[in-house]
Amino acid sequence: MALARYLALDIGGTKLAAGLVDESGHVTCSKTAPTLRERGAADTVARLLALGQAAHRECGEPALTGIGIACGGPLDPVEGVVLSPPGLPDWDHVEICRAATEAFGAPAVLENDASAGALAEYLWGPRRGSSSLLYMTISTGIGGGWIHDGVPYLGHSGNGVEVGHLRLDWRGRPCACGARGCAEAYVSGRAIAAIAAERVAAGAATSLAALETVRAEDVVAAARAGDRLAGELWADTMAATGALLASVINAFDPEHLVIGGGVVRSEPAYLETVRRLALASVMSPSRSRTTIDAARAGVDIGVLGAAAAYAYRAGVRPDSSEEVAA
């Protein structure tokens, strides 16, 4: 039997990624590029497909089993249409699966990026085959994916488990979704940068004031260097994240909570800190029975998740793969 090869395309608010993934979860020929979302959907789709073509060529243009595409919601996973994600202005009813199939001549599926990340961990991660796995991505935005008894939960409309839009304060900061006080308005990469920029504009004394544009990674670096304001903002971010994780665990009672995304990788002490803060507020017995760990794939989780979305729909299950990718 020929080895399955999936072309994986990941659409993030900050970064596009593409790569080839085999049936054991090995990622090869991965490519990345900035999203440049201000250019609009048509430009971004064209550059995403070009990135996929570059990855395909680098791997010798093998026959493709299928194409997996991961993107933040809302979207229509049945029709393969991106609807109107808050983090992607101008993406309104984009038929991304049709575009990918026309470009590569292979069937394509679309999945919410966090649901795709959950499938990647379920199929190919250290917790593969877990009966209860919740995946969260904390990056430009925040998303969630839930696997229970081997089945992903997508919700009635295909957009369930939007943990980034759990509300920490119903009268709080405005969120890109139109509501106030969502977790995404406090602990996402976009929120960290926005809050810091607001403080700089208000005249706060900070080294961040010397930057033309403040990014989340700038806040983390400044906090590490001893900047007082940045340190306060980063501490607040971790406290809010701990509260979010505790609420998620109390609501879902997962065996494993797996966290991926750029914010998680930004600071070595981040995961241990938010784990401690979260578990301090989790009800028993979940407090002692839920593990909180980082995603295994690191920077490849978006690509791996996109491939897992196709593989799962094609019938691949944890016991059908002979090994777990390192």
Summed up:
This protein is an alpha/beta fold and 326 residues long.
Describe the protein.
The chain has 326 residues and is an alpha/beta fold. It folds into two domains: 5-119 and 299-320, ATPase, nucleotide binding domain (Nucleotidyltransferase, domain 5), CATH 3.30.420; 128-295, ATPase, nucleotide binding domain (Nucleotidyltransferase, domain 5), CATH 3.30.420. Helices cover 37% and strands 20% of the residues. The chain has helices spanning 41-58, 96-104, 113-124, 184-187, 189-201, 216-224, 228-252, 262-265, 270-279, 286-289, 301-313, and strands spanning 5-11, 15-22, 27-34, 66-71, 75-76, 81-82, 108-112, 132-138, 142-148, 151-153, 256-260, 291-294. The strands form three sheets. Strands 3-2-1-4-7 form a five-stranded mixed sheet, sandwiched between helices. The protein has a five-stranded mixed sheet with strand order 10-9-8-11-12. A hairpin with a 3-residue loop joins strand 8 and strand 9. Helix 6 crosses helix 7 and helix 7 (228-252) crosses helix 9 (270-279). The model is unreliable at 321-326 (pLDDT under 50).
What does the secondary structure layout of this molecule look like, with pairings?
Blueprint: E1 5-11, E2 15-22, E3 27-34, H1 41-58, E4 66-71, E5 75-76, E6 81-82, H2 96-104, E7 108-112, H3 113-124, E8 132-138, E9 142-148, E10 151-153, H4 184-187, H5 189-201, H6 216-224, H7 228-252, E11 256-260, H8 262-265, H9 270-279, H10 286-289, E12 291-294, H11 301-313
Parallel strand pairs: 1-4, 4-7, 8-11, 11-12
Antiparallel strand pairs: 1-2, 2-3, 5-6, 8-9, 9-10
